[in-house]
Specification:
Elements: H1 2-11, H2 18-21, H3 26-34, H4 38-44, H5 49-60, H6 66-78, H7 81-109, H8 111-134, H9 139-148, H10 155-166, H11 171-202, H12 207-225, H13 251-278, H14 285-305, H15 312-326, H16 328-336, H17 339-350, H18 353-367, H19 373-401, H20 404-408, H21 410-426
Helix pairs in contact: 4-11, 5-10, 5-12, 6-7, 6-8, 6-11, 6-12, 7-8, 7-9, 7-19, 8-9, 8-12, 10-11, 10-19, 11-12, 11-14, 11-18, 13-14, 13-18, 13-19, 13-21, 14-17, 14-18, 15-18, 15-21, 16-17
Protein name: MFS transporter
Keywords: Membrane, Transmembrane, Transmembrane helix
Transmembrane segments: 82-102, 114-133, 210-225, 251-275, 281-304, 316-335, 341-364, 376-399, 405-425
Length: 439
Amino acid sequence: MILFLAARPVTAPPVRPSRPVRPSPRRPRLRLRSRPLAPYRRIFAVPGTRAFTAANLPARLPMGMLSVSAVLMIAGSRGSYALAGAVTATGLAATALVGPWTARLVDRHGQARIAVPATALAVLGSLSLLLCVRHGAPDWTLFASYAATATTPNTGGMSRARWAHLFRDDPAARHTANSFEQAADELCFMLGPVLATLLCTALFPEAGTAVAAALLLTGVLLFAAQRRTEPPVAPAPATGRPRSPLRLPELPPLLVTFLATGAVFGSLEVVTIAFADGHGIRTAAGGLLALQAAGSCAAGLLYGLLRPNGRAGHRFLGCTAAMAALMLLPLLAAATGSPAALAVALLLAGMATAPTMVTGMGLVQSLTPPGQLNEGMTLAVTALLGGIAAGSAGGGWAVDHLAGAGAAYGVPAAAAALALTVTLLTARRRPDRPAAPVS
């Protein structure tokens, strides 16, 4: 075709070649304007990506449902929020211990071989909790049952590992995929508690746990069935047992930043509920928190449209600085006593969290060895969960001991400042490596 077009001027007037040349500079600009979502279309054009993403979403939604459902179910039947909180805290601690071990097995033996039996065990734990609550079993059975749910695999991490394998030589596509995954996380944590509350209050107290367990099992089975996009199992090292990613010098400081970021999330939730309760609008607390998650979800999707420039460490520093600055807005808005001002402040504050998480997860992927991606990302999620638990406790203490819930918004602001401080202190010592290729 090129040779044919080159031969055309021989028989055609000389002016003919100028016609296709004239509009050519405009076409790329028009195409970019009419296709603003081109980066997302490009990653989902790869065969199999839509299938595993569609299967992963129902598997991920229970992450925002299980703890809320357990609290509502236990508190409704036993009349004790203290017992409900202790049971969910025990499950969180068990997840922090078991989660990295489960992820290591996934890396070593494959997603399908480990995720399905691990999910089955977790679902049995949820059903055991439901039956123990339903039939008035002793309190210790609630702790044992909920602790069994700690084998729930990190479905978001497994999805990110697939993107990392598919786009191992394309950093821009990995950035877009990680942005989408973070937006999906925010969407699930925004819709999960709402769905759990609706099921537990409109149907019966055990409905939330039952539906969450069914979604988890169905989603993981469908996800594991998508074998063509599953990352290959890395060969075992010749030295025997692989080193834990925790022994990498650059990873622990990054996990401390994730811990502080989790404290932002946990304290923001508790303080916002207390603020709404103190202003007589407790039913609006879910809406206020949904605004924060919506801001984060939108920012994550928009962030994925941008082409990452510069060093990842510098971008991460900029994201944590933006988060620290925007987390001052709820503190200032709460001081006015206006729920409307707080709603706007939470929406804006949420817009810094997703870019921080996207860039941070990208750094975890680049630092973690190829055959330990699931373990590395699960360690990051574990740090987040630990931070959420600590932030919830710190936010609750601040509400009780400071001058009202408005002043307690200083806790998420302080946690964001801590994340920025840790990043500043460790940014120079963290090398920017290219993302490790997945064999």
